[in-house]
Amino acid sequence: MNQTLEGHNGGVMCVTWNANYRKLTTSDENGLIIVWMLHKGMWSEEMINNRNKSVVRDMKWTADGQKICIIYEDGAVIVGSVEGTRLWGKDLDAHLRFVEWSPDSRNIIFVTKSNEIHMYDYHGNKIKPLPLYALANKKQEKKMGGDDDWSDEDEQEEDNTIIGIHWYDGTEGHIDVDAPTLAVAFRNGKCQIGRGEEDPKATLIDTRMTLTQCKWNAKGNVLALAGSVKSKSREGEERQVSQVQFYTPMGEHIKALKVPGANGISAMSWEGSGLRIALAVDAYIYFANIRPDYVWGAFGNTLVYAHNKPDRTDVCVTFWNMKSNERYTKYLKGVKFIRGAGENCLLVVKNSAPAGPPPSGGENDENNNGEDSGPKPNQHTLLLCNSIGSPVDTKYIDIVPKFVEMTPFHVIVSDFRSVYIWQYRTNVSKLTSNDAGNSATAMLRRNTGRERMLDIEEVAANPAQTIENFKPKAGRIKDGICAITASKKNLIVARESGTIHRYSLPHIGLENKYAIRQRPAHIRLNCDSTKLSIIDNASILSVLDLDSNNDSSDGKEGTYGQLLQFERKDAWDLQWADDNPDLFAVMEKTRMYVFRNFQPEEPCQSSGYLSNFSDLQIQAIMLDDVMANPDTPDRDMVLDFETKSLKDARELITNVGLAEATAYIEQHAHPRLWRLLAEAALEALELQVAEKAFVNVGDYPGIQYVKRLSGLGERMKQRAEVAAYFQRFDEAEAILREIDRKDLANELRIRLGDWFRVVALVQTGGGDDKMLMKAWNKIGEYYADRFKWQKAATYFSQAKNLMKMIECYYRLDDFDGMEKGVELMSEGNPDLMEAGRMFESVGLHKQAVRCFQKAGDVKAAIDTCVLLNYWEEAVKLAEAHGFSQIEGLLAKYAGHLLSKGDKLQAVELYRKADKATEAARLLAGIAEDVGKRQVDPLRAKKLHVLAALEVERYRKKALDLTTMGTTKGKSVAATTAATLDTLMTADAESRAGGGASDAGRKVMDNAWRGAEAYHYFLLSHRQLYSGDVDAAMKTAIRCAEFEDILEPKDIYSLIALTAYHSSHLNICSRAFIKLETLPGLDESTSDAIQSLALDIFKDQAPRNPSHLPTCYITCLETGQPYNACTITGRAVLDARTVGCKTCGHLMLEHELSVSNRKNCALCHCPIPGINFSIMEEEEERGD
Predict the structure, then answer these.
(1) What is the mean pLDDT of the chain?
(2) Which residues form the IFT80/172/WDR35 TPR domain (predicted)?
(3) Range of the domain at 266
(4) What DSSP state is assigned to residue 410?
(5) Which helix (H) or strand (E) holds 715?
(6) Which of 417, 608, 922, 951 has the highest CB neighbour number within 10 Å of its CB?
C-alpha cells in the first residue's frame, strides 16, 4: 500500500515497528511522535506525543513489544508502555544518538555523540560504560602519533563515529550457544560483535568501507553492514560505490552486494523472514532477495535439515522422508554442516566439551587401532547417519571444517589449507569385510586407505598421508582454499587466487592444476568429471572444461583445461544431471534455467534449492517454506520440474503420433524418453515400436514382456494385459469379464495377491471350491500378518484350516475356541501335538492331556502333568498305561526338593501325587523339628494335625478301594474278611517305611499322638494364663503321657507350676520328684530344683485340697493315658460325650453346648449334625 502520513508536517527522521502488536511508530524533525495502527486497510493515528524541545534521535521497542524507549538529541529519555502510559523519564547529561534494549528487556544501552556507550537498567539507573575494543588500537596509535592539526583530528573523530548498534533479541533461537549478538558498527568500517554487553573476546571486523547501517536479520545468523567503498574506473577515476557486506556472527564474510547509487545507503531493513532486504538509496528503495545458506542435505527420498528453536540451546536436526512423510528428529549441539549422498548423510558437529563414548561404528570400528577415539574439546565430530538419523559411523578430526563435500563413497572436509578424505564405503565393501579376518595384509591396506590428510601446498605426486603421519602447519596461508567438490573419481580443490587442483580418487594423486581469474565460491563437477562449473563471489557462472587440450599461443602445448565461452550472471545454485554430462540446471534470482550443451531452455519461476537432477527431471526443495514450518513440512514443498525435451516428447506422443515422437527421441536420445515412448506404444498396442524402445533402454524384461504380449493374439487380452502392466487392475479385470474370461481375471487377481477379489470372482462362477478354500486361507494369513486375530480365525475356520484357527484363538486367549477346534480334529492328527503344547504353555493341563491323548502320545500327556505339577493325574495316567518311570521321577524330584531343604514343597508334591503316607511322614518330621526348637508349639501342633489327616486319608482310600473291589458277588462274611486282610496289608506297608524317620514311623502307628501332645500342652498354658489353674493342672497331667514327644522337663515343670497355684501340693511334690530324677540334669539345675522344693515344702505339707480321680495320679506316675475332653482337658468319666468322626477324640457334650463349638477342638474338623463353620480357635487364642 502507499499512504501519506498526514500527521507529520516535517520530514520523518525515525521509524520503528512493533512486530508483536503490529504498530508503527514514527517521528519527524519537529519532535512529533505518532503511533499508527492498521484499521480497515488504512493506517490511522492511535497516539500522538510532542515534547517541543528537541529532535527524536532513536526509538526502540522491547523484544516482547511491551515497552518503548525514546531518546532525544538533548539527552532526554522517555520509557513508555504499549498502551501509551509513561513509565519513567530521565535527562542524561549527554547528546544521544542511538538506543538499544537488551534481549531480556532488563537493560538499556545509550550511544552518545562522543562515541561512548552506557548501560542503564530498566528503571533508569546507570550501571556501567561498555568497552569499545574496535577503537582500542586506534586510540593507542593516536597516543603514539603526537599532536596533529585540528582538521586531521576532526577527520579522525568522524571516522570513529558509531553509526549503528543492534542487539539480536534471540526470539528465533541461536545458531550456537556462544554466538555473538551485540553488534556495534563505526563509520570507519570497523565493527565489533560481542556475546553480550562485555565480551573481551569480541569478534572484530574491518569491512574497509565507510559504513552507514548495521542490522541483524530476524534469526540472528546474518549481520548486514551497509555503506560505500571507493572504486576506480578503467579511466582511473575514483567514485563511491554503494555496497552491503554480509557476515556470520563469528565474523566470517558471506557475500558482498553492490547497489546502484553514489550517495550511499541511508536506510536498511530486513524482512521478517530474512529472505529479503530493503535498501534506501537517494530517492529509491531497492529490494534484494537473500538466499540463506541453510544447513541441509538430501539423499534418496530423505531431506535432512537443521534449525533452531527459541526454547532450546541445541540444534534440532530433522530427517524427513519426502515420499512417506515420516519424520525423525534428534538434538545436537554445534551442528555446522549437513551433506547427503548415496544412502547416508553426514553431520559435522563441533565438540564444545568432552563427551562420552562415541556411537557404535559398525563395520568400521577396526579403524580405531585400539587408540582412544573419544572426542576432544577442540575437535569436530563427523557423524555418518542413515535415513532415520541413527549413527552408522563416527570420526573425529582436528581441523576446523570450512568446506564439506560428500559422495556415495567419500567424505571430504577441509579448512583453508588441509583436506581430510574419509573413504567410508567402497564398491567391494562386503567382499573386503569378509576377507578382513583372513588376510592381515588386506586389513592393513583397508585401514591405511580409509582416512587420509592432504596439504594443498604439497607438490609431490602422491601428496596424501595417513592421519598418524600428517603434521598440520600452523597459520593460514595467503592463497587458501575457497571451495571444494568431488565426484566418484575426482576431488577438486579451488584456491582464492583462482588456482584449481584436481586429484584422483580414491588414490588421491595430483592429476592437474588449472588457473582462472575468478575467485570460486561454489564449484560442481558433472557426472563424468569432465567439466567444472564455477560460481564466483560476484555470482557469475562459468564452466571449465577439465579435459580439453588447450594449445596456447605462447607455444606451450598440452596444457589441459579451458574456460568455455559461457557466462551467466546472478547464479546462486547449480546441479549437474546424474546421467548426462552436458545437462545442468542453474538458479538465477527467482528463475531456474536448464542448459543442454550450454543452450538454455525456457526458464521456470522458482526459488527452490536444487537437490537432484536425473531422468530429465529436476527436484527442487522450497527450503524457505520448510524452514518457516520446520516441524510440519509438507510434500508440496518438494517440486519436480521436467526438461524441455521430456515435455516436448510427451507433447508429441499425446497430440501428434508415435512416428514423429520416435524421430524426435532418436535425435534427443535418453533412457527416460525411450521409456516414455515404450509406455505410449504399449498403450496403443504398437508392439514393434515398444520393442524398439525397450531395446534402446536396454530393458530385457520389457523386451520379454512385449514378446509374451505378442503371443496372446487376441487384442482384448492384450489390452487387459497392458492395463495390468500399468497397474490399472480394475480396468484389466473389467476387460476380461467383458470377454467372459473370469478364469483369466481370477488368475490376474491371484498374481496380485488380491484374495478378497478372488473370493468375489469364485462366488460368481470364476473358480471351484478348492480355489475358494485357498482364497479364504490367504485372507486369514493377511489378517494374521496384521495381528487381527479374530478376523483371521473366522477365515481360517471357513477354510477348514483348524491349526491356524487354533493359533489365532491362542493369540486371543480364547481357550474355549481352541477346545472346539481340537474336538474337530481327527484322531492321530499331528497338529494335535502343537495344540497340546499351546495349552501346556498357558497351564491348562486337562486340555493339553486331551490333545496328547487324542494324538496318541501318552508320554507327552504325562510329561505335561509333571511339568505343570499335576502329579496325581500323572500317576493315574502312568498306572493306566503302564509307565513305571513315573515313580522314579517322582522320587527323584522329591529328593531334589529335600536336598534343597524345601520340605513343604516336597509335601505338596506328594499330596498332588496322592502319596499320603510319604506326605504324612514328611509332615511328622517337620513337626518334630519345629518342636525341638521350642519356639512355636502351635505350628508343631498344626503340622502334626496335617500329618494325621494324611494318614486318615490314606486309610480311608484303602478302605474305599477294598470295598469297591470285593463286594461284587461275595457274601458279607467274605467281604469283611477281605477288607480286614487289605487293611492289615496296608497297615504293614505303611509301617515298613525303610527310609522313614522315628516321627514318620510314629505317625503311622498312632497318627494323632503328636497332635494330642501339643494340643494339651497349649491348652494347659492357655488355662493357666486365663486364671483357671485347676483345669490347667489337670490338663498338664494329661501331658505326662507324651515324654517321647514333649520335653519331660517342660511337662513336669508345667505340672508343678499349675499344681502349686491350685494348692495341690501333693501333685506338686510328685512333679518335683519327677524333675529331680530326670536323667541328664546338670548339677546347678538339680540344686536349683531341690532348693525351690525345700522353700515350698518346709512350711507346707504335701496335701491336696480335694480328692482327685485315680486316673490323674496313675497318668502322672506311670504315663498311662486316659480319655480326656479335648475342650477342657478334664478326664471323661461318666458324662455324656460327643466323638469326632475324623480324629476319634471325645468332647463333653455340656462343654460343647456351652462353648457353642461346631468344630473339633483337636483337628478342627466339623462335627456332624451341627450347622457348622470352620473356626480357627487355636490361632485366635494362640495370638
Answers:
(1) 84
(2) 673-762
(3) 168-290
(4) E
(5) helix 715-725
(6) 922
Contact 395, 410 (CB under 8 A): no
Q: Do 1113 and 1064 contact (CB within 8 A), yes or no?
A: no
Residue 1179 covered by a domain: yes
| Amino acid identity at 1015 | H
Q: Is residue 195 part of a domain?
A: yes
Q: Output the nine-digit C-alpha cell for 747.
A: 488368475
Beta-bridge mates of residue 128? 119
Instruction: Output the DSSP codes for 1152-1167.
Output: HHHTT--B-TTT-PBP
Give the position of cell 604439497. 458
Q: How many independent structural domains does the chain possess?
A: 3
> Does 20 share its domain with 123?
yes
Query: Which grid cell is 873?
Result: 493325574
In angstroms, what CA-CA distances link 734 with 680, 684, 747, 768? Answer: 21, 18, 13, 21
Higher pLDDT, 203 or 954: 203
Same domain, yes or no: 99 and 184: no
Residue 347 makes CB contacts below 8 A (sequence gap 6+) with: 304, 317, 332, 335, 337, 338, 381, 382, 383, 385
- Residues in a beta bridge with 280: 267, 285
The label of the residue with cell 501333685 reads: 1067
Asked whether residue 111 falls in the same domain as residue 205, the answer is no
Torsions phi, psi for 264 (to 5 deg): 85, 170
CA distance 61 to 77: 14
- The CATH number assigned to the domain holding 1157 equals 3.30.40
The SS3 of residue 1078 is coil
In a domain, 766, yes or no: no
Coil, strand or helix: which one is 595?
Answer: strand
Joined together, the cell numbers standing for residue 841 give 504353555
DSSP 115: S
Residue that is last in its domain, among 262, 290, 318? 290
Task: Say if residue 124 is in the same domain as residue 229.
Answer: no
> Is 926:904 a contact under the CB 8 Å cutoff?
yes
Domain-embedded: residue 1138: yes
Work out the burial of residue 123: count CB atoms within 10 Å of its CB; fewer than 13 is exposed, 13-18 middle, 19 or more buried: exposed
782: nearest Cα among 795, 773, 772, 769: 795
Q: Which helix (H) or strand (E) holds 523?
A: strand 520-525
Residues 82 and 183 placed together within one structural domain of the fold:
no
Are 82 and 191 contained in the same domain?
no
3-state DSSP assignment of residue 177: coil
**pLDDT value for 1156:** 83
Question: What angle, rounded to 10 degrees, do the helices at 858-867 and 845-855 form?
Answer: 160
Q: Do the beta carbons of residue 464 and residue 421 sit within 8 Å?
A: yes
517/1108 Cα distance (integer angstroms): 136
Return the minimum-mean-pLDDT range out of 77-81, 735-739, 1009-1013, 1168-1172: 1168-1172
Measured between alpha carbons, how far is 208 from 934 in angstroms, rounded to an integer? 103
Instruction: Please give the torsion angle defined by the CA atoms of residues 516, 520, 523 and 525, in that order, rounded to the nearest 10 degrees.
Output: 10
Q: Provide the grid cell at 596.
A: 543442454
Pick from 109, 130, 151: which residue ends a domain?
130
CA 659 to chain centre: 57
Q: Does the pLDDT at position 217 exceed 90?
A: yes
> Which residues make beta-bridge pairs with 118?
110, 129
List the CATH number of the domain containing 278.
2.120.10.30
Judged on CB neighbours under 10 Å (0-12, 13-18, 19+), 966 is middle
pTM: 0.69
Q: Hey, what's the torsion of the CAs at 1079, 1085, 1091, 1095, to 10 degrees?
A: -90
Residues 94 and 196 in one domain: no
**262 pLDDT tier (thresholds 50, 70, 90):** confident
Q: DSSP letter string over 882-908? A: T-THHHHHHHHHHHHHHHTT-HHHHHH
Give, in order, the Cα–Cα distances in Å from 101 to each of 66, 168, 261, 604, 976: 12, 9, 33, 44, 115
Distance (Å, whole) CA 769 – CA 753: 18
Distance between CA 923 and CA 914 in Å, rounded? 15
